[in-house]
Amino acid sequence: MKRHLISAADLSRGDALLILDTTEELARIADRPIKKLPTLRGRTVVNLFFEDSTRTRISFEAAAKRLSADVINFSAKGSSVAKGESLKDTALTLEAMGADAVVIRHSASGAAHRLSGWVQGSVVNAGDGTHEHPTQALLDAFTIRHRLKGSQGSQGSGLDGLRVTIVGDVLHSRVARSNVLLLSTLGAEVTLTAPPTLLPLAVDTWPCSVSYDLDSELPKSDVVMMLRVQQERMSAAYFPSVREYRRRYGLDATRMARLPDHAIVMHPGPMNRGVEIAAEVADSPRSTIVEQVANGVTTRMAVLYLLLGGTEFPAVTS
Amino acid sequence: MCAASHPVARRDGLAVLDAEEIRRALTRIAHEILERTHGGDGVVLLGIPTRGVPLARRLAAQIGEFERLEVPCGSLDVTMHRDDLRLHPARALGRTELPPAGVDGKTVVLVDDVLYSGRTVRAALDALNDLGRPRAVQLAVLVDRGHRELPIRADYVGKNLPTSQRELVHVLLTEVDAQDAVVISDTGGAA
Amino acid sequence: MSTASADRTSWLIRGAEVAGPGSRRVADLLLAGGTITAIDTGLSGAGAHVVDAAGLIALPGLVDLHTHLREPGREDAETVETGTRAAALGGYTAVHAMANTEPVADTAGVVEQVWRLGQAAGYCDVQPVGAVTVGLAGTSLAELGTMADSAARVRVFSDDGRCVADPLLMRRALEYVKAFDGVIAQHAQDPRLTEDAQLNEGEISGRLGLAGWPAVAEEAIIARDCLLAAHVGSTLHVCHVSTAGSVEIIRWAKSKGWPVTAEVTPHHLLLTDELAVGYDPVFKVNPPLRTAADVAELRRALADGTIDCVATDHAPHPVEAKETEWSQAAFGMIGLETALRVVQQAMVDTGLLDWAGVADRMSVRPARIGRLTGHGAPIAVGGPANLTLYDPAAPAETVSQVGASKSRNTPFAGMPMPGRVVATFLRGTPTVLDGKLA
């Protein structure tokens, strides 16, 4: 019985398609005058955000509210946690408040796992350290399917045969980990492109290919997903300078022109304009960055509905 | 890939309507709709997934034949408005697709295969409420099997079928099941 | 129970299988006046307490080269009293107490304090280990000579917890201890390669998003230190070897005749980094759990003597230090009470080592490496009556979290494990009888 969404590896192909198809239906609600559904009325969803992330928190909050759930926001700054309260004690407090679901973002890998051992409700991982961010991968997969297959053609279909190139600091990226798992579950061919220092040592055991050369990957890609690169990595000797990183792995207008006509450019945000992605690329029609945000709300509505709407996440055969 | 949460009626149960009877019932309903809505003025047919949708399309096609009138047709999924969600695992959603002109000021005829407790229709009325403000709402069903739990009644009924609560009524339609029939089977106790 | 009165009564141990070099023999042992006075069949001990040891293995009292007793400073996790109780229950008659206490054991004052606490508790002999550098800071040598001359008679020096990373300082330390037959025990971990490391660098760490602790960070230091020890002609002991690569380097150093010894922990003989997938910090330890291939090589090395001994690295931590996110949790596992059972499961039941070998690796060699007198002598008439009676046929029982140690961080909790320590004798006086503290 699936009670939590902690890793993209928790989802079979059938589970992932169910979530995407549900998202497709819920996306139509955005066009209605009343954007609300009564489905989670009486349920309490707690946003437990130990890391600052206004954008993701608002996305989950909007998703829960559109399903009429009660939302409680807990942010670590200025709270008991800042005074040294442990994750376990925070969890027990939430239990006492009767949370049906806890959406957790934390700087430590594995925090969502640990939390799931201490609460009765469902745990949704909104990003734990450098481990995973499964709802990001789901909204990315939905965006890819919606853009490249249209809304009519996508019901029930996966991403089979689509070639996705993920570029950037894979080593420290929870978005990359979740996407590699989910996109390959859905049948896509994933290639990771990065300097060797920013790839995990055992990446050859992951369900994807690896390339050090961005230019050779571009003409074959249906999707290019850019990851944020943090400047602090430079001082830890992951790459010599921002200039060299941009030169070798940045997506500028010239590189964008090498993409096939139908190809799209994605970024989970927040972007470093001028580092991994040039402004003109981010603002071009190929870019899905803005719709990724909108799709984030509907995807999270689908996840919350499937986890909390009934007694449990439906058993899917496949 | 629908989540199955009810016992499935055995297809080898007793057939109480065959394809020909279904066709006649739908024809009669189509005529009745035209009568009671002044020739189909402002009518929108919304089928409730799954099988209400092909039924609504068939009715629209019939009306189109008799009257050369194109009746707008769509679907209205009620899953998110059901009152029994907490009793089963979450269900997959059906498609909600309104015709381009919408439902405001229209006479919406909800179409479903079986009318039983009335809860599905109640959910449909709630769902409809969030989509707009129809002038009137009517209900057309192929089979009314009784045992209402809410004050809900159908305006158009294909066949009244008294049943016991131990029985399951299954409507089969070519668009979904490769045949047309209405079948009753006994669950042997499990309702 | 002070050690001075240890030889008040005599004990007759009947029908034990004495584990020694050569063939195994079943015999009776008479302990009196702190020594083994007779080993033969059909002994009668007038006035002696009798212990029926049929089916039990008699081992020389176990000696642990690597224990953290946490006192002074971290008594919330363990004290000398509670730690030595756990040791006795594990069959140990002597433990080396590591220096990373608060304050650090880098002066005669602190090591003598720890030594006295051990004597007062009386459950087993506590041999303090002195720090190599002041405050474990790795910048200047501690007063190694003074600690050696103190009442605690320190011979083993270690900054364990930290690596003596500065090659020049390591060279000096190795040279300096030659004057009093000391040995430097190195915790091999290059600090720059393991900044904020959480777990063995490999497939699991990549999948879990935890910073990796690469094997090379251990192996590179060991290689350097073996060369240094050979160069200056001093002895090196390598703490908690954890990788197959480290084994290979030690084997090479020994093949050159260089004076290098090495230890392995029980948990590194049994557990792998696969256990980290649930993010339970009870499996977080330094050096980290490695792969199955490493475990297999460590077992082979212990069997053929490339690794000289088993040392527990018993590292107690209070509950709140382990009941948290992985990256916040403390490193370390307790292990005194389960050590012999783990060694039985990993080495004896797999046919890699016999009980004579266990006696050698868990008592004889550790005592020799630690330059510890009065312990680690093979069981013989006239030898000190430090004995452990062990039942290898005891039905497998699941390991409990709760034991004599103050702390609960055992990675074996819930695992069924064979064997049971039945009795431990310290200079002829039982500290443990029938599996309970005497």
Quick summary:
Chain A is an alpha/beta fold and 318 residues long. Chain A has helices at 13-27, 54-66, 87-96, 111-116, 134-153, 174-185, 214-217, 232-235, 242-249, 253-256, 279-282, 289-308, and strands at residues 44-49, 70-75, 101-106, 122-128, 163-167, 189-193, 209-211, 223-226, 264-266. Chain C folds into two domains: 3-57 and 383-437, Urease, subunit C, domain 1 (Roll), CATH 2.30.40.10; 60-369, TIM Barrel, CATH 3.20.20.140.
Characterise the protein shown here.
In chain A, strands 7-6-5-8-9 form a five-stranded parallel β-sheet, with helices on one face. A four-stranded parallel β-sheet of chain A has the order 2-1-3-4. With 318 residues, chain A is of the alpha/beta class. Chain A is built from twelve helices and nine strands. By secondary structure, chain B is an alpha/beta fold. Chain B has one domain: Rossmann fold, CATH 3.40.50.2020. Helix content of chain B is 27%, strand content 25%. Chain B has helices at residues 19-36, 52-67, 119-131, 174-177; strands at 14-17, 43-47, 73-75, 107-115, 136-144, 156-160, 167-172, 181-186. In chain B, the strands form two sheets. Chain B has a five-stranded parallel β-sheet with strand order 3-2-4-5-6, with helices on both faces. In chain B, strands 1-8-7 form a three-stranded antiparallel β-sheet. Chain C folds into two domains: 3-57 and 383-437, Urease, subunit C, domain 1, CATH 2.30.40; 60-369, Alpha-Beta Barrel (TIM Barrel). Mean pLDDT of chain C is 95; it is low at 1-7. Chain C starts with 10 loop residues before the first strand and ends with a strand. Chain C has helices at 80-89, 108-121, 144-149, 167-176, 203-208, 216-232, 244-255, 292-304, 339-348, 355-369, and strands spanning 11-18, 25-32, 35-40, 49-52, 57-60, 62-67, 92-97, 125-128, 156-157, 183-186, 199-200, 212-213, 236-238, 260-264, 309-310, 387-391, 397-398, 416-417, 420-426, 429-433, 436-437. Chains in contact: A-B, A-C.
